[in-house]
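R.M. (postdoc): so does anyone remember the format we settled on? I'll just put the structure tokens first.
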């Protein structure tokens, strides 16, 4: 596959993820997460917001010094002091990036920035120019892009590319976009901006309507080649697009989408566990890819299918994403095939069909009373059945 089809994975767990209320991490915790992201072959790690606090500065600096295989990035507003602080934190990075941003939507410019659009353009160009004097890799984000005017975005993007930004990020800051419309916006930007080919277009989607992954994939279909995302979808409010979902969608639908990433997908579950344990944010059981039930089958029909051919009910393997195995969970919806198969794994075989049927009917009675039947329950149940026979 040519490079044009490679989607750059930009992880912002340590910056936007950490902005999730209650998710703050110490420097050492951030370093552990960054090393895991590097091991997973994430292309860009946004390590923090250097000016936000002395601790965040130290985290960005420490990560920039310890990580050599991924590019390390610091966020900065389009302000001199922010940019200089980011540059200082990244001084010793093997590969560094300053990510500077300013809001471009009418509501943000009028009420938050209290600036005229022309002033915003001027400040953006000044920020990118200053950042480029400190580092050779600069990303520029148009905050609240999905509520910004297309003509204005074209104007500011053309200018910041001329000033040296090599990545242009289009955030759906408030999770307002819907896939078709968002894809249209990205397609228009790529087509209309005369120097668009000098930069990589990126997207950064929030999940307020549960559409962050869908919007990101739609944008990639329209020409974006960097996706900003977080482990477990951690992030402000309802979170950011989830890294594991983006990466596995691209991999699982490779033939249809024609895209690829450089991620070692077997490191996904270890990364998810680590982020969950350092932040104290549990992963919901039915979370795609990394939830405890993502590769578990309970119903008899599904279990029977998977035992005959895994792909009847699985579109990827548990091992692909770092689980040891898929799981057959025995409960009231389970069937004879899974019951017998689990007992065989535990070393118990049935001499006759009637012995199996007896044990299975006791199992169903128990399953009506218990959510999940464990191996110890099965062993006890079979020995009771045999004792009474
Ligand atoms: O959501 C957002 O707009 C951001 C930017 C700073 C990239 O996080
Ligand atoms: Zn964000």
């Amino acid at each position: 596959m040519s490079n044009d089809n490679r989607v750059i994975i930009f992880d912002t767990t340590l910056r936007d993820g950490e902005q999730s209320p209650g998710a703050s991490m110490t420097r050492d915790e951030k370093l552990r997460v960054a090393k895991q992201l590097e091991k997973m072959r994430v292309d860009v790690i946004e390590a923090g917001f250097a000016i936000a606090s002395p601790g965040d500065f130290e985290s960005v600096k420490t990560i920039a010094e310890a990580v050599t295989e991924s590019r390390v990035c610091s966020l900065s507003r389009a302000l001199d002091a922010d940019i200089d602080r980011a540059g200082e934190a990244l001084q010793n990075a093997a590969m560094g990036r300053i990510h500077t941003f300013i809001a471009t939507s009418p509501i943000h410019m009028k009420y938050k920035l209290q600036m005229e659009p022309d002033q915003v353009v001027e400040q953006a160009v000044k920020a990118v120019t200053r950042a480029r004097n400190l580092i050779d890799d600069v990303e520029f984000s148009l905050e609240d892009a999905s509520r910004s005017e297309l003509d204005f975005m074209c104007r500011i993007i053309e200018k910041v590319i001329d000033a040296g930004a090599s990545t242009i990020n289009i955030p759906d800051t408030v999770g307002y976009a819907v896939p078709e419309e968002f894809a249209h916006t990205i397609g228009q930007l790529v087509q209309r901006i005369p120097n668009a080919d000098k930069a990589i277009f990126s997207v950064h989607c929030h999940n307020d309507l549960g559409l962050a992954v869908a919007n990101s994939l739609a944008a990639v279909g329209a020409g974006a080649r960097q996706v900003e995302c977080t482990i477990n979808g951690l992030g402000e409010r309802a979170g950011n697009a989830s890294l594991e979902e983006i990466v596995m969608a691209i991999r699982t639908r490779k033939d249809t989408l024609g895209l690829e990433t450089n991620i070692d997908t077997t490191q996904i579950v270890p990364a998810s566990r680590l982020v969950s344990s350092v932040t104290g944010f549990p992963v919901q059981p039915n979370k795609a890819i990394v939830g405890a039930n993502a590769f578990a089958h309970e119903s008899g029909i599904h279990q029977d299918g998977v035992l005959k051919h895994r792909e009847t009910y699985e579109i990827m393997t548990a091992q692909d994403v770092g689980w040891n195995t898929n799981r057959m969970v025995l409960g009231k919806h389970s069937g004879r095939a899974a019951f017998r198969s689990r007992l065989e794994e535990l070393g118990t075989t049935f001499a006759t069909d009637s012995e199996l049927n007896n044990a299975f009917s006791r199992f169903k009675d128990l399953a009506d009373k218990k959510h999940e039947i464990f191996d110890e329950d099965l062993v006890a149940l079979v020995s009771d059945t045999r004792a009474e026979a």
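R.M.: ...and that's the designed sequence above, right after the tokens. Also worth knowing: The pocket of zinc ion (ligand 2) is lined by residues 16, 171, 173, 204, 206, 236 (CB under 6 Å). Residues 233 and 242 are 4 Å apart (CA to CA).
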